[in-house]
Amino acid sequence: MRTIRIHVDQPLAVGTTVALPAQAAEHVARVLRMGVGDPLVLFNGDGHDYAAIITEAGKRQVVVNVAAAEAVHRESPLRLVLAQGVARGEKMDLIVQKATELGVSAIVPLVTERSEVKLEGDRAAKRLAHWQAVVASACEQSGRAVVPAIAAPQPLAAWLASLGSQDALRLALLPEGTLRSNALRPTPAGALLVVGPEGGLGDRDIAALTAHGFAGLQLGPRILRTETAGLAAIAALQALHGDL
Question: What structural domains does the chain harbor?
Answer without folding.
Answer: 5-71 (2.40.240.20), 79-241 (3.40.1280.10)
